[in-house]
Specification:
Chain A is α/β, with parallel strands linked by helices. Helices cover 44% and strands 15% of the residues of chain A. A 4-stranded mixed β-sheet of chain A has the order 2-3-5-6, sandwiched between helices. In chain A, strands 1-4 form a two-stranded parallel ribbon. In chain A, helix 2 packs parallel to helix 6. The chains are: A alpha/beta (179), B alpha/beta (353).
Chain lengths: 179, 353
Amino acid sequence: MHQSAEECPHCGLTLQQLDAQYEKFEWRVRRPHDTAGVLRVPQRRQLAEKIYRLERAFPQVFFSLVTVALSGEENLHSYGFWLMNRGQFESIGEDARADGGVMLVVDVNRKEVCLQFGTLLDPYVKEEEAFEALIGAHPYLLESNFPQAFDVLLVGIRKYLKKLYRIAKREARRSKQVN
Amino acid sequence: MSHLFKYYYCLLVLCFSVLEVGAKMPPLPSWNEADKALLKKGEIIVGRSLLVSGVIVAVDPDADDDTNAVAEQEISLVPELPELSSEVAGSKAGILSDEVLEKYFKQKHSYGLVDPQRLLSMQERADLEYALNVHVADEGLPIRLFLFDTGQGVPSRFSPDKVFKELYEEEENESVMVYYFRGQPKQARFYLGGGNSEYLEGWELRELLYNATSSAREKSEFFAQLEGFIGQLSMGLFWVEQRLEELVVSPAKQSTNTQQDGASGGKVQQLVAYCMEAIGAYGSRLLWLTLGSVLLLLSLLVYRLKRRYRFPVMVGGSRLGGSVGGRSGGVLRYSDPRVPPSEQREQFNETFL
């Protein structure tokens, strides 16, 4: 998926096609957004507090944790991309940018997890490194111990965001020198 | 030929000498008939006069016991070797003259060896002074070593404590005075004065001297004894110095503690005092170090909590017509426990979407 491309050069996929595919899904995104219902209310509160602390360190970024049960043609990448673009995220901080989203998407049906990023961080993200940020939670996910898994995932994501920050700073300095 | 002539000449001189000596000696006794008869009876024993002194009465077996009593001879005991008493030794070595005493005690001496009588050889003196200098260089308590000869006595008015108080009392730091008597380590006398030495217990100093003396007595030679004595004394003084450093802190602590006890008098204060004493001289340094470490850790913690990571904004293009959505990371699957994350990396060669 090339940047600035209106449709996928391989399959011709566009955002409008995704709108049609995921029209039944909730587009108002709470944080955490537990549509699969794997968390209890107190666990959601605790998770919301942890998300708030994470966002305090990265003021431009808003973070969301989404659990969903996908089926058929739906997949994690396309759902995350659609929700990031079409979703309305609740209670975002004042300094947070609209393109500064970081979303952890968990498909409890296919048992898959991935991270979705906004365009603020897009230039610095590498798929493999984002994958590395998740693997610490694998044992807890195998046991469906979601609260513990989300704790570990948040720690991994915080570390990864710091790494992205260093990369972004370096890139910014480099581009300044070039200009 | 000449050798043969010399030989004959010597022989001739020897013969003449013998003849001349023989002419001067009394004539040899000659045996008469009566003597020969007594010799046959056994009443004369040849050479008896040479072997037995005194008058020997001939024993008559037929005579009475009284008359047969042999005159008892007084046999006196062989006198034993005379023992060298202390008085004799003292008199032999001599009481120190006033002139020598003045050299020892009437003037101040710097640290090291004090030997106005020159009892040591040059090499021994150099070795001993080197050892004392090394001891001082290692920040040990300085030693003034007064060396005396065997059996010499020091008048009581020149005892180490009196001499120290008279000459060296104004010195701020502790120092040691030792009177060492050549070959008599047991007679050594010791005094530690100045500084905070009054806080030391008497038994500590006695033990120090006893150990040094014992170490010296293991050797037989005089200088080896002295070396052993100084070596052990130096080691002992190291621990005395450590003890003194502890005692320097303790009195100040004790005074503050007594004031606090008057106010609160709780067991907590005693416990604190005990802990402070246990920490000893390093207490204040340890306290500052701990305080500094805690402050540093707190600063780091506050910095980490307060730090804000603001990303530089780069102008980037949208994807698939979306306004804000961008790239996604790799997918972690947890459906099969037999497929660990390490086996899921092959996905990164695939195309996105």
